[in-house]
Structure formats: structure tokens, C-alpha cells
Amino acid sequence: MREIEAKYRVGDIEALLAALKQRGLEFSDPVRQDDQAYAQPGWDYGMPKTGSVFARLRTQDGRHTFTVKRPLSNEMECVEHETPVADRDQMHAAVMEMGFRPTVRITKTRRTATTAGMTLCLDEVEHAGYFLEVEMTVDDDRDGADAQAHLDTFVQELGIHTERTTDTYDSLIRAATTG
């Protein structure tokens, strides 16, 4: 499976909510996500992410999920594998044993909505601000850049001010807290 997304910094949350409500969309109740990001051995910030493997250990509502992503043509198009895990501490130890290293802890509050094969995530990311992720999961060979252009068109048609970013949350948080 591939996850293809486009991400936007959002300044006016109420305008976004109103634009989506006008289209008949409403976000779910908020959930808190606690993510630990990991990088493969040999990768460090400043190096390209495409082709490297990254892991994430997420806790949400007392449940833990382990995810591995490998960016393809850009950081917003990834091969993704995900599975529930019973014990976060043991999974963390296993990831460390495989040589991965923890990079950034990402805590956010997320609300979601779905429409036309897309998932919309409104995230309040600690240390980084508010973001809208629009994503699709595909199992075909469609062009990632074309899919991202489709997602971008959807966001532009909302008619609200957003700022598109190609950075992942770990990079955004790292930049906000170290520089």
C-alpha cells in the first residue's frame, strides 16, 4: 500500500471548518496521538528522506500501532506498513535493537473526515501549529505527483488561505524546537 498526501499549515481553523461544513463534511471528535518517530541507521536530518526507511510507534486511546514508511518520489508519497502492537515498551526496545534511533516525539490532537476516497486530518501539533493533511491510500500504480495535484486541487477549491508544506511533522517540530 502507498499513502499519498498533501499537507497544509492552516491559520484560520474556523474558516476551514465552515468551508468543509458547506460541503457537508464535519470532523470527528478529537483524539490525542502520541508518536515516537525513528530513523534508520545512517540517516540524519539534512539528508534526503526518499528511499530511506522510517518507523513510528503511536499510542491513541490506549492502543499502540507500529508503522514503517519509505518515501518514494517525495516525503508525502510513501510505501507504508502498519500493525497493532500489544506492548509499546517492548516494541520500542525491538526497534532500537534493529538499529533505528528515536528522532522526535510528536504529540498532536487529530480530527478526521472522509470524502471521495480522501481522508482529511485536522491536526493541532504541539510545537508546530495547526495543519490539514489530505491523504489517500492506494494499491495501484497511479502517479504520486498526479495524486498530490488532485489533493491540492481539492484544498484550493475550499477557498481558504493555507500554506502547503512538504515537511513531515518530525522535521517541522525539530525546526521549531532547535532553531
Automatic annotation (TrEMBL):
CDD domains per the UniProt record, alphabetical: CYTH-like_AC_IV-like
InterPro entries membership: Adenylyl_cyclase_CyaB, CYTH-like_dom_sf, CYTH_domain
The enzyme's E.C. designation: 4.6.1.1
Molecular function per GO: adenylate cyclase activity
Alphabetical list of SUPFAM superfamilies matching this protein: CYTH-like phosphatases
Pfam families linked: CYTH
Source taxon at top rank: Bacteria
Coiled coil feature spans: none
CYTH domain span: 1-175
Keywords, in A-Z order: Lyase
PANTHER family: CYTH DOMAIN-CONTAINING PROTEIN, SI:CH211-156B7.4
Protein name as it appears in the record: Adenylate cyclase class 2
Native source organism of the sequence: Nocardiopsis mwathae
Lineage: Bacteria, Bacillati, Actinomycetota, Actinomycetes, Streptosporangiales
